[in-house]
Amino acid sequence: MRRFAISDIHGHLQTFEALLSRLALRPEDELYLLGDYIDRGPDSRGVIDKILEMQEAGMQVHCLRGNHEQLFLNAYHSQSAVDSDLWMRNGGKETADSYDADTWAHFPRSHVRFFESLPHYFEVPGFVLVHAGINFRKAAPLEDTASLIWIRDWYPQLDREWLKGRIIVHGHTPERRMGIQLQAEQTEQFPVINIDNGCYIDWDGYGHLCALDLDTLDVYFQQREEGMF
User: Which residues pair with 192 in a beta bridge?
Assistant: First the structure.
């Protein structure tokens, strides 16, 4: 059995499928997706369809909630102008376009239920998996669910005693390719790996979707297949 983590697909179905092809997952392998499946890229609906298809086929695909799924849920449930505008300004327009949605009724209920079901963290042997990070200023860090999907600049707070030898893997804040590689190589010095290379970003050192092998700490970088949106 192999274990992989991927984060921040952001509607890039072609890139996601290219990376999956390289991983050549077997039925016994575990795939952990760390949130932000939607927004910014051209085919958010296709990404969710692909994830659900893999799960229905019996593949071990475990999904976390990201802040973009939360933005969608806030807008969907409140249907307020404030929440809708916030979602739209953060890539929601591209998601709505992928569903051909001009009303909330156009979003399949199965997709909404998927978003609603997403947990905020996984604890697996050797690792804590989250979307954004962990607020170690809290007495019970994993109960601060807002921070798990939104926090930035949390590295100085890292509590090694709380970790008990585990490594935190997260996304949310785009990191240059070289930085991701260095983090994966230096976990004894600092037990955190950010695997978000900003798939949607057209800057030098960014623009890839990453997969981390949790057992070898090898990082697979898949260059974005789609054009810019």
Answer: 168
For 11-42, give the DSSP string.
T-HHHHHHHHHHHT--TT-EEEE-S--SSSSS
Distance, CA of 57 to CA of 60 (rounded, Å): 9
Beta strands 167-170; 127-130: pairing state = parallel
Task: Tell me the residue type at 119.
Answer: P
- Identify the helix (H) or strand (E) that includes residue 8: none
What one-character-per-residue DSSP string does 49-63 give?
HHHHHHHHTT-EEEE
Copy the structure tokens of residue 63. Answer: 């999904």
User: 127-182 pLDDT, tens per residue?
Assistant: 999 999 999 999 999 999 999 999 999 999 999 999 999 999 999 999 999 999 99
Q: Tokens 């997709």 sit at which residue?
A: 111
Q: Three-state SS for 124?
A: strand
Question: Which of 37, 18, 74 lies closest to 208 in space, CA to CA?
Answer: 18
User: Amino acid identity of 96?
Assistant: A
pTM: 0.97
Rg, the chain, Cα only: 17
Q: Residue 204 phi/psi, 5° resolution?
A: -60, 130
The domain ranges of the chain are 3-223
| Fold category of 3-223 in CATH | Purple Acid Phosphatase; chain A, domain 2 (3.60.21)
